[in-house]
Amino acid sequence: MMTLILGLGLFLGVHSVSIIAPGWRDRAAARLGAVPWKGLYSLTSIAGFALLLVGYAAARTQPVWLYIPPSWMRYVAAALMLPVFPLFLAPYLPGRIKSATRHPLLLATVLWALAHVLSNGTLHDVVLFGGFLVWAVVDLISLRRRAPRPVPGAPPSAANDWIALGLGLGLYALTVLWAHARVIGVAPLG
Asked: What is the pLDDT of residues 149-173, one digit of tens each?
């Protein structure tokens, strides 16, 4: 469990620099240069993500149950997950979805994490998904007092919404029907 917590702390910590210390982040990026800063940021993120994966896999071998969700909760989770993939793609395909939600990737993270907290009752699930849920909500709140950083993507277009919806719903179907069971070892709908 400590490896999971360390990985989660490292991954979310590096992603929280703009929340906690935006001035320091900007000064450090200017001092190091854009490419070295992005390299350091990426390496730290990858290391945190790797520890998170290893820690999560290890914790799954000895689950500690905090609560047992009702079986119908998997359908609630599936419904919450439906907009996640289109929202995940929307920042990179700017259109009405991005304009309406303002921060679609963070909203996708909130829905993804909430769906998983509701449908999984083990300690390692609550730590992982609860950690992401709290982080995303804090980041959304912090964006009220700071400007979001630009996200590179396609030029804005009304067609981007259709692309985000089509690709997103396709990824959702692929995940629910095949990938989640193959990669995670759990079939989302039973």
From this structure: 888 889 999 899 999 999 999 999 9
The DSSP-derived string for 31-58 is HH-HHHHHHHHHHHHHHHHHHHHHHHHH
pLDDT tens-digit series, residues 37-77: 999 999 999 999 999 999 999 999 999 999 999 999 999 99
Query: How far apart, in whole angstroms, are the C-alpha atoms of residue 170 and residue 159?
Result: 17
Same domain, 185 and 127: yes
Beta bridge partners of 65: 122
User: How confident is the model at residue 150, as a pLDDT?
Assistant: 81
User: Domain check: are 101 and 118 in the same one?
Assistant: yes
Question: Is residue 174 within 8 Å of 114, Cβ to Cβ?
Answer: no
* pLDDT of 190 above 90: no
Q: 55 lies in which domain range?
A: 1-62
Whether 75 and 55 share a structural domain: no
Number of domains in the chain: 2
Last residue of a domain, one of 34, 62, 90: 62
